[in-house]
Amino acid sequence: MLGVGLGCSRMVRAVLHFLARSSSHRAGSNCVVRPLDSLHAICYSTLFVTCILAPGALLADAWAEDTPGPVAQRRLEREHIALRLKEAENAVEKRLLSESLRLHFYGYLEGSYTQNFNNPSNRINQLRVFDVNSNQFRPNLAQFVLEREAKAEATGWDRVGFRVKFNAGRDSDFIGGINLSTWADFQEFYGQYRAPVGRGLTLQAGQFNSVVGYEVVESPHNAHYSRSWLFGLGQPFTTRGLRATYEFNEQVSLSVGAIAYINSARADTNFDPLVEYALAVTPTEKVRVTVYGLAGPRDGPSGTPGGTVFLAGGYLSVQVTEHTSAVIESYYANQSNSSTITTSRNARWDGAAAYLIHDFTDRWGLRLRGEIFEDAGGFVTCQGTTDYQPRANVCFGATSGTSAPAVAQTLWEFTGTVQYKPFASFITRLEYRYDKSNQNVFQVGGRATSYQPTLSLDVIYLF
To answer: What does the pLDDT look like over 371-419, one tens digit per residue?
Structure first.
């Protein structure tokens, strides 16, 4: 195009010079030469065709080269369709492979912020387990689960399954799995087999969530962001060993575990054999009763020989209406020769909690919890330190290297949570909690107090 423009420019100058000379010649002659007028018209026509129409034709040719014709357009459409079909085939192949192997991958991401209105100077929420950071953001957990479900109505390898649950985040250090660092751990890892006995006997070997208690480690499965003291201080998180589960019928099932290790607020240092169990009875579709227990030898705090732990309790779950359910949980626990403050050396802890769960719509819900917890032997509360990780179960007076002095105390708390789910896989929770003790174990600024109010915002994404 630039060459055409320069050529036109030169042509115009040449023709105009010629016409000027022709006009001058005509002016100096007595004869009128008419053919020169025709020559002017021819020259002007040539200029128009060359300098106006020729660049337009070149532009049209260039546009034609860039714009595919009907044949080329159909070829591009076929290539696009073939590419989409290939992508669909790959997706189907992956899905068929996953379904044939029965592999499932899922998990969740969780982050939170907690405002402690006592504004403790060490920025720790006292006697909390996973919501320990005061007035700051906490990247709680990124959990990834890969599992293969074992089936009873099958043969051969279809009866074999497994689960691997990996965590990364600030909660990892206190969950008590196989810790890779203070920010990563394997919470669960076990193999399972559905033996052809009756309706199917499930056998598991490895590490798994405990069957003891109503609440669990995974935050999305709980009604509230903060954990109850019944769970966080007095019950196992995970156990390691062997477990058998049998479903007698649709109403009754029993799980029994022979375990050698407990992960809880008081982690084991010795591998002693224990037994845990859970009997679940569902008399109707709206009522479920679960009775659980734990028994066996456990080590005690420094200066005590330790002894036998015995925990027994259960919970009742009732579907009151289509949108409302209620849960009541209670248990009693005792460990002999493990208290440093009682004359009998018995460490006893017990408590009760009540839950009310109501969903206004699929998106909006309200959850309430009231709880009372007693640590008569000063055995399970105030065992944490102010060190960077994990800062859980801390009381006023703790340092980075030592926990606060053991104290017998009775605690109670009330928790209210408003839950909003913009869509099914996204959960937001705004939680207010008020803690109270008959001892000054909480902290206002830099001094001790007997209460603790907090407000938390919790965000969870499920995948």
So the answer is: 999 999 999 999 999 987 778 999 999 999 999 999 999 999 999 999 9
Cα torsion 253, 258, 262, 264 to 10°: value is 20
- Which two three-digit tokens encode residue 290? 């679960």
In the structure encoding, which two tokens stand for residue 208, read together? Answer: 């798994």
The residue segments making up the domain with residue 321 are 111-134+149-154+194-462
203, part of any domain: yes
In 3D, which of 333, 208, 226, 185 has the Cα closest to residue 262?
Answer: 208
Residue recorded with tokens 């995948």: 463
Query: How far is it, in rounded angstroms, from Cα 315 to Cα 369?
Result: 14
Query: With a threshold of 0.85, does the pTM exceed it?
Result: no
Q: Are 126 and 391 in contact (CB under 8 A)?
A: no
Whether residue 442 sits in one domain with residue 364 = yes
Q: How far is CA 274 from CA 151, 177, 270, in A?
A: 28, 18, 11
